[in-house]
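USER: Study each token:
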Amino acid sequence: MTSQSPTSGSDPTDAYSDAWASIAHLVAEEGMSWSGRERNRMFLSLGNGKFVDASSVTDTDFIQDGRALGLLDWDADGQVDMLLRNRNAPRLRLLRNRAAPDAHWLQIQLVGGGQSNRDAIGARVTAELADREIVRSLRGGEGFLSQSSKTLFFGLGETEEVVSVLVRWPDGTEERFGIAQVDQRYRLVQGTSVAETIALKPPQRLVAQEQIPPSKPNLGRIVLISKLPMEEFPIPSFDNPQRKVKDLLGRPTLINFWSTTCAACLEEFDEFYQKRGKLNRRGLQIVTMLTDDASKHDFARKILKGVNMDALAGYAPQETVNAMQILVEEVLGRTVDMPLPVSLLLDERGQLVEIHVGKIRVSTLLRDLGIINRMDPTNPSASALSFGRRLAFADRSFTKMAERFRQARLPKLADYYQALEGRFDPQKPNDH
């Protein structure tokens, strides 16, 4: 973690830059929280420029990952309630204010006119009491990603009378309003000088319901914005343990990771077999990669022979599975749960253009193969597969990928991707 921001304008040290990069990676790719598990803090003004920590006594010191705060009178009792927005569950928490039920209050709603905006954003309201003044300003947004109620709240304590209310409107004019009695909500319209009483209506009673946990997103088909080269990616076959993607260039390739215990994988094989004629006419070669251990190899080959998919069949030792995981995380981030089957669709140059998590719809695959066969293989963009969405090409950091492969003890892949750094800049001619 970084202990503090630089105090001078000099360039940051490598350690400082690396620390920020690590934090950004944890938050963006691994689902960690920025300053998570830090208790909320509420500070009570003493009226003399000093504050006291009242977090515990007000029951606001939740350890959830808080994000935003909104103030409102939810239950129409004149007291200020709070809505807390969290990053984690519960995402929304209502805190009703029951601290001083006998204290007096005043609520003001403003309507601008003339040269002022209708919402009167920017107005300054002063409640003039016999012994003091209370000032509030109306803001359009307050705090981080927050917008409180546009009603202005004035806590009066034991004071039972308001001398007057002075409004300085956004256009700079001032106007004074008389207040008949406290413990009321008033609407002040610019230019009228008359405070209109608004009846308070308690909200409908909240009814507790069973919480339904969110379902995991179905990733399905993921199109890359920019193609990802894979020529040196290992795809050992049963006959050639040294086989790589570059040995199968010239035709689009589907690398399919599967298991003999995966029902969805076997169903997918049946569909591939039923549509094999159409897939062959698109020029697709399917490379199945078994993720089971060696004891299942013979059984797996019998399954593949039964659906005519044994010619290019291979197996995925742990290093191949790790390499696949790094490639997928480069595209989707590190928080992705990938149940089998997982398929990687490559163009004729061995460049990754699509990732499929779960069963593939063969009709979708056939459509995409038609597009891939018409794409310029020398163009690093794969946006043609996104069907009209506006996408900006962004050159990825192959250096960071190389570091991941080195950490996984895959030095050959690390060297391969390190050598690609800068070669796919869209502003430069692409010689790959």
About this structure: The chain has eight helices and 19 strands. Confidence is low (pLDDT under 50) at residues 388-393, 426-432.
